[in-house]
Each structure stands twice: as C-alpha cells, then as structure tokens.
C-alpha cells in the first residue's frame, strides 16, 4: 500500500525562514535548504529572502534543467497543503520551457571573445596615449577611452555573473577576474552578492541594495521612515544630513554618478576584508591589487598633477554613463516595503522594471539593459536573445493585464529625475513644515 503524503500549511512553512532554519517550496514539495545555503553558488541571501514560501518561479528563472535532479536530497517528505499555481506563473513557466527547448539559454552568440579584443584595444590605445604623447588633449581622450573600456568590461562582468560566457567555467572565471578585478578594480564576488540580492528583491526598499543609497539619494518618501536595510544590516536613518542631501538630489545625481565607482571600490574592499565567507577570496584580492598597481602607475606617468586629475576625472565620468544606465531601469518604477514574494515573481519583476527603447544597432551601448524586463524574468538568457524574446514577454503581459513599461533613453532620464525631484520636494516639506499658499502648491504639484 502506497504511503500517504504528509502536508504542512503555508503558516507552518513560514515558521522556517530564519538563519539556521530555511525551508522553501518548489512545485508544492518542501525542501530544507539550511545546510545548502552555506554552499549555494548564489549565496545564502536569496534563499533567506525566499524562505518560508513558494520559490518555484525564482528557481525556474535562475537554474538550468539539470538543477532539478539535485533537489531530492533536500526534500523533507512534506508537501504544501492547498498548493496552487496562478495563471501568470503557468504561462511564465511554459515560456521558460519553450526558450529552453529552442536552446536559447545555451546559444551565446554575442561574441565575448571579440568584445575582449575590443576592450584590450581600447586599453592599449589609452596606455599608448599616456606614455607616447605630450598633448594634454590626447591625455584627456586617453582617460575617456579607459572609461569606455571599463563600461564594456562591466557588461562582460554582468553577463558572466549570470551565465557562462566562455567555453568553460575556468575560462569564465578568468574573464571575470581580468575584466572586473584586474581591469576595473571591482570585486566580481561583491558584484554577484549584491546583484543576486537585487534580482530576487527587485525594488524592495528594505531588501534591494540598488535602491539603498541613503543619505545621498531616496527614490521614495517611504524611505523617510528610516527603514532598515536587510542587505547591509543597518538602519537607513533619515536625519538632518540625509534630509539636506536628498532635498537637492535631482541636481546632484549626475555629478555624483561621475564618481560613483569610488563607492564600488569601497564596497569591494569592505566585502573582501569582511568576516563573511567569500569564494576565492585570494583570487579576488590579487585581482584588486593588480588594478591598484597598474592604474596609479599609469596616472603617475602623466607630466603634472593637473593632467593627472583631468585623466582620472575623464575616466570616471565616462564610466558614470554606465552607473546612470543601472539606475534608469528601476528608479522611476514601482517600489514597495517588505520582503520579496515568490508567489508573484512575474508581477514584481515587471512592476519594478523599465525597458529602454532603442534601435538594434545601439544594443552595444546598453549592454542588454535596454531589455531589463526580459533580463529580470530570464536572467540566464544571453543578452543576444533578449530582443528576440521581447515580443513573447509583451504578449504575456498584455494577456494578464500587467505592466510593460518602456521609454526612450532620453525619456527614461527625464522620468528618473522627476522621481528624484518629487522625493526631494517632499524632503524639503519635512524640513520646513510651514503652511504653503495655493501658488506654491500649484507649482510643486506632481501627478
């Protein structure tokens, strides 16, 4: 006689969502991933954020078909009582299965080798301009070219963190360390830790690190309640300093983006020298040391401090374009307070994300981020296929009456600044809580 299934309720499942006790549901089966969280390639944070709930859609999005065979060793023997699947999730899973059958997740036709050669060429021209020219203008252009090579290396780092861009895992790792740590001075380990959290908790003010820029920026007045960052494990205090800085954020945003990589340097150092478990810590630190050897030496070869400062500013400012691009897709989209939910994965990703409309010949400029909705729904999908699958995603959104927001690069910038300005004006009201006349209200009303 077959053994009857054992069930637990959703409430009982939610009791297992703290460090040292992590259970998740995948297709109605309950898995204990507590021990696995210490070895999980994506880190423990995604498992912790989705613990105590159904995580099937997130699992489908992030894992290849081979991963399903490893689930059984984590099976608790329990099933989720009254497990059901929404029509949106059914269609999302069907779409993922169709893309898999078409081989889209394996066909990486975006020419990583060619892009690596272009990066090497840009880097070589920049070095040549510094060492072999006495022209201040050439030195300025060399700094700009170096910044552009950092942008392109950033796209390789982004892609290689989501899927294998090289012929083997070993070469994939080499590409990551070379383009991220050695060339750009950014820890690829820190980026993956940060970026995975962003994808899982897209636009959660408490769980998404890409929206946690207090006291410099606040994309929503909800941050004025001094929320807690569960990523950085600190309170984001909205004090007098934050209020002042946020009040002018729509003016300071672009200047700050010109030097945003300084924050990435700091975050990389804090990550690599923290007490947390860092995979391949030695490789990561060695790569960072390579950057902090060649870059200061290159700058020191310039004839005077004025040109050295000009070179650094030019390289950082050009790279600032990429930092702006990272913000465009999310700053003006819907935000929420609270943990991410696995039960409405598709809806949360589309609500919190914006696509950039551009011609196909401009895809190199956006590095795949122009199809951010598609990328968030299918993060393992190589960027060369994002334009191809976009109509299918649009059709699914239309079928279920879900948002599919798009804007031109210019319009997206306008929307982002309007979002920052709206929050800035609200911050000013809090700092000057005096009655305003009707003219002031008319001028500053948004809607």
Automatic annotation (TrEMBL):
Leader sequence segment: none
CDD domains (alphabetical): Delta6-FADS-like
Transmembrane segments: 111-131, 137-156, 253-273, 285-305
One Pfam family linked to the record: Cyt-b5
Pathway: Lipid metabolism
Keywords, alphabetical: Heme, Iron, Lipid metabolism, Membrane, Metal-binding, Oxidoreductase, Transmembrane, Transmembrane helix
A GO biological-process term: lipid metabolic process
Gene Ontology molecular-function annotations: metal ion binding; oxidoreductase activity, acting on paired donors, with oxidation of a pair of donors resulting in the reduction of molecular oxygen to two molecules of water
Source domain of life: Eukaryota
UniProt subcellular location: Membrane
Membrane-topology annotation of the record: Multi-pass membrane protein
Main location: membrane
Ranges where the Cytochrome b5 heme-binding domain occurs: 5-89
Family classification: Belongs to the fatty acid desaturase type 1 family.
Identification of the protein by name: Cytochrome b5 heme-binding domain-containing protein
The organism of origin for this protein: Gossypium anomalum
Organism ancestry: Eukaryota, Viridiplantae, Streptophyta, Embryophyta, Tracheophyta
């Amino acid at each position: 006689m077959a053994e009857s299934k054992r069930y637990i309720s959703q409430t009982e499942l939610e009791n297992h969502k703290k460090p040292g006790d992590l259970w998740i549901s995948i297709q109605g089966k309950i898995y204990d991933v507590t021990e696995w969280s210490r070895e999980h390639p994506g880190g423990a944070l995604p498992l912790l954020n989705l613990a105590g709930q159904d995580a099937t859609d997130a699992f489908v999005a992030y894992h290849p078909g081979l991963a399903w065979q490893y689930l059984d060793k984590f099976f608790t023997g329990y099933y989720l009582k009254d497990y059901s699947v929404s029509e949106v999730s059914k269609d999302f899973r069907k779409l993922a299965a169709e893309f898999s059958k078409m081989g889209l997740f394996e066909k990486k036709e975006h020419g990583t080798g060619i892009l690596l050669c272009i990066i090497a060429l840009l880097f070589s021209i920049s070095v040549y301009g510094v060492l072999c020219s006495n022209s201040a203008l050439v030195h300025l252009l060399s700094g700009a070219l170096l910044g552009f090579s950092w942008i392109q290396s950033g796209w390789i780092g982004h892609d290689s963190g989501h899927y294998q861009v090289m012929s083997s895992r070993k070469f994939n790792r080499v590409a990551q360390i070379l383009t991220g740590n050695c060339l750009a001075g950014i820890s690829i380990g820190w980026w993956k830790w940060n970026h995975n959290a962003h994808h899982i908790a897209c636009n959660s003010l408490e769980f998404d690190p890409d929206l946690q820029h207090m006291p410099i920026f606040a994309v929503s007045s909800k941050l004025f309640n001094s929320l807690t960052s569960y990523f950085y494990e600190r309170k984001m205090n909205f004090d007098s300093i934050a209020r002042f800085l946020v009040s002018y954020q729509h003016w300071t945003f672009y200047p700050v983006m010109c030097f945003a990589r300084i924050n990435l340097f700091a975050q990389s150092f804090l990550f690599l020298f923290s007490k947390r478990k860092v995979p391949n810590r030695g490789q990561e630190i060695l790569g960072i040391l390579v950057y902090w050897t060649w870059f200061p030496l290159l700058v020191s070869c310039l004839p005077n401090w004025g040109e050295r400062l000009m070179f650094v500013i030019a390289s950082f400012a050009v790279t600032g374009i990429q930092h702006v691009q990272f913000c465009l897709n999310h700053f003006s989209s819907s935000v929420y307070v609270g943990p991410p939910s696995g039960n409405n994965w598709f809806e949360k990703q589309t609500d919190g994300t914006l696509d950039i409309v551009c011609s196909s010949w401009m895809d190199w400029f956006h590095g795949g981020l122009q199809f951010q909705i598609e990328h968030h729904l299918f993060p393992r999908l190589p960027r060369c296929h994002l334009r191809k699958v976009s109509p299918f995603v649009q059709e699914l959104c239309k079928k279920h009456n879900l948002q599919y927001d798009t804007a031109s690069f210019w319009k997206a910038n306008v929307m982002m600044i309007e979002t920052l300005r709206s929050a800035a004006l609200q911050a000013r009201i809090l700092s000057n809580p005096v009655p305003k006349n009707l003219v002031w209200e008319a001028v500053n009303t948004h809607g």
